[in-house]
Please model this.
Amino acid sequence: MSANQREEGYNVYGFHFYDALFNEMANILLLGRDKKIPGTDYDWYGMQREDVGTYVFQYTLSGKGQIQIEGTSYALKSGEAFIVEIPSDHRYYLPEDSDGWEFIFITLVGSKAAECWRFAKAQSGSVLKLSPDSKLIQLLFTIYQDTADQKITDVYHASAKAYEFMMELYRFAKNIEKSPKELSVPIARTLSYIQTRYADPLTLDDIAAASGYSRYYFLKQFQQDVHMSPIQYLTKIRVKKAADLLLATKKTVNEIALQVGYSNANYFNKVFRKAVGMSAGKFRKSKDPSKIDHLIID
Model:
């Protein structure tokens, strides 16, 4: 596995394994998070690529991209994804009127991936609308972070992650994970902003600015759509990320506090205790290895 270094926080990882069996069934070929700025040469033609037999899922975090599929053009804004197979009649690119395009993507290979992509396209079309809070997008972020943390190191683990993503895409296509309300583009963009920048010292003004709404209207709309305040949502994300790190790493509580956006470990422990019912240290010590992999918080 190799990583192509970009701007800090953005990487593309390539997976190269010699066991042909898993590549024929389902495996990850590419995985990344990237940001294209105006003037960047970013233009992919589905019939002119060498990576034949691959299946791309790409989700917009912020900004705007464009995709043309069989003669029909679609703008890709925050909260929208596309699925395509290569080769096929499509072209995705950074349009001239875009002020930038930030996205996360995964490319799979294998016959089972082909079946999954074709089923999802038949059920939902090639352009999908998903909340950043949806299980499919949360899983994609988790796979990306696991890769960045060098937890996916062999063909078996990579193939397992490919299947996990495919099963979640099947669930989405079958509408098993029903969303009570489609989020507006500004609120979806804000959720993506929080999901990707929770480790920064975010203020309410920062979060409101990401939406493009006035602060007053943003607070009202966010509460109505997400059923909690922006700061409560930010705290939820930070605590969930901290819990994952407590369970999966040997980092100290102080290190984890810093990694999830808290400069003061005492304050982090206070927030964690309020959300989970125990301190971060006690949570780690009380873990039953056979029971807990991730903490779920509502």
In short: The chain has two domains: 2-173, 185-285.
